[in-house]
Amino acid sequence: MTDASTTTAFRLVRRLAAIGHQNPSLYLLICDATALSLIQADLAAELEVQLGVGLRALAAAEIRPERLAHAFTGAGERATLVSFNHWLPKLVSALDRNIVLLTTAGAVLLLMTQEIAERMLATAPNLRSRLTDVLTIKADLAFGSDHA
Amino acid sequence: MGTDSKPGTVVFDRRQVYRPFLERLNPIGSPNADLIIPRSHDPRNSGEPPIHVAFANAAELSRGMQMALVGGIGSGKTTELLLTQKVLSRHSDAVNVSVDLSEFTDLNEINTGAILATAGMRLYSKLLLRLKKSGEDLPDDVKPAHAKLRELALGTTKWVTDEPVEFEDEDPNMVRVEVPGLMRLRFPALRRKVAEVQELFLIIAAPLLEADAQITLLIDGLDRLIRPEIFREFAEQDLQAIKGTKITVIMVAPLLLWYDKSRFLQDYFDLVKHIPAAAAGPEDSTFLSNILERRGALDLMDRSQVDSIAKYSGGVLRDLLTLARSAAEYAYRDDEDRIGRPHVTAAIAQLGNRYLVGLGNSHKRLIRNLLENYAFDVDNSTARELLVNRQVLEYFSGGRESFAVHPALAKVLPKSA
């Protein structure tokens, strides 16, 4: 699809450090389907090491669209990661219409495959508009040791 | 300059260079934070006062008016509402109720009555504050009306007799029954008659109306419904319920209503204002640059970078802030103490690529046609998608409406679409 910049968990968390993980930021992260859990583990580790904060990991399929407020309430103390392993149009529509709930929840990371990202960006204009950045994320080892 | 953590030396923390700037780039600042640059006039007419002044004047002089504000995503609608509220607060009898509806109710489904119920509960809080200040008592009928309204809106938990159940600490003759609320906050809602909510709302508002207060409801969030017909269903009954009272409503509406042939917007509302993207002319360019300067951009980048960000934002205020923020993050990533041209260029490409995502061949054909022939048919459904997604921006200058491809998108668009 696009020339989204490539990053790693290390680099992304470094960016979060610049703004502070409790300040609102919303990243759409693209990765291979097989790397979802590995990326999640990388992010959790980097957040702990660099910022000393935990990662609140949510599976998108388990979030009920009518309970978005519940899912994101009080999330500011930790970074929140929502992993999409398949396309969820109702949830994406709910996120789009109720986007302010995500923009007050500190750092929120939406992790998904390229295909899901393309569909989300095409169908959720409010969400797209509020994104801090769209990045392709690779596992640290796969990307090499460039921690610059 | 790198980080130096040797004992006895001053530790340089680059985060402190960028973090204050990034925090000031939070898209919605408080009007009291002195970060907002108000427009000097109506964006569609330089001879008219700015939108927030027009709204405030209308609310002050003609109580009960219903006004709508339309504009694309990120065009600054919420900022105008905040500024309107600030202007309205100049009068001591002003009671301003400002809500972003999606913070209170689930916008996924039509929720007739939710606007009225939310406004009623917020109005109750304002009433209590005013009465506390003046030392007056709450009229007898207001508290029960509020309790009933809350019950309708948020739902309640009732205990009713039923077959014995095995709860250890509870009456075995009672069973728990959840009564869903109108606002679908957590549970599926029952449909309620708006008239019932209206009656309760007016009981709560009565002490303020009798005191001749200037009540204004400022309602944000419904523009995110995108589709005009959903907005109409959502908003129409609630607004009708307030018509005829002296309560003013200012509501944000989806951009597509502006182009809707039904003319609902123009026919229904007493005053409609539209925020187009800020044009690339010198006056608007200064306006855009000033927004960044107020947030400290010149401490971290040269004026040429500020101008470049302003240009490639296309006049979309949220994109203006996003570009500045991305550029700062790129500079931080590169261990630079200032934002340079490569960082701004990378930020523009990043924004452009984001707009490129999801464009099909039909979208690209329309974009090419607009770029090469300056032709854009807003009645075309694909064209409207481009408008909603901000890949095409609407401008208004010299009394004429025009359309242009978002400059960040135009910059990354493949040569052969």
Give a quick set of tags describing it:
heterodimer; A: 148 residues; alpha/beta; Rossmann fold; 7 helices; 41% helix; B: 417 residues; 2 domains; five-stranded parallel beta sheet; two-stranded antiparallel ribbon; 15 helices; disordered N terminus
Provide an overview of this structure.
The complex is a heterodimer of chains A (148) and B (417). Chain A has a single domain (5-84, 96-114, 121-141), classed as Rossmann fold, CATH 3.40.50. Helices cover 41% and strands 22% of the residues of chain A. Chain A contains seven helices and six strands, in the order βαβαβαβαβααβα. Chain A has helices at residues 9-19, 36-51, 68-72, 89-97, 114-123, 125-130, 140-143, and strands at 5-8, 25-30, 55-59, 79-83, 107-112, 133-138. A six-stranded parallel β-sheet of chain A has the order 1-6-2-5-4-3. The longest helix of chain A has 16 residues, at 36-51. The two termini of chain A are 26 Å apart. The mean pLDDT of chain A is 86. Chain B is an alpha/beta fold and 417 residues long. Chain B folds into two domains: 11-24 and 280-411, no CATH class; 45-275, Rossmann fold. Chain B has helices at 15-24, 51-61, 77-88, 114-134, 142-154, 194-210, 228-242, 264-268, 282-294, 303-312, 317-333, 341-356, 361-373, 381-388, 407-412; strands at residues 66-71, 94-100, 156-161, 174-179, 214-220, 248-253, 271-275, 392-397, 400-405. In chain B, strand 8 (392-397) and strand 9 form a beta hairpin. The radius of gyration of chain B is 25 Å and the shape is globular. Residues 1-5 and 185-191 of chain B have low confidence and may be disordered.
For the record, what CATH class of the largest domain in chain B applies? Alpha Beta
N/C terminus separation of chain A = 26 Å
> What is the level 1 CATH name of chain A?
Alpha Beta
Order of helices and strands of chain A: EHEHEHEHEHHEH
Helix content of chain A: 40-55%
Report the β-strand fraction of chain A as a percent range: 15-25%
> Total domains of chain B, how many?
2
Strand segment count of chain B: 9
Radius of gyration of chain A: 14 Å
Counted up, domains of chain A total 1
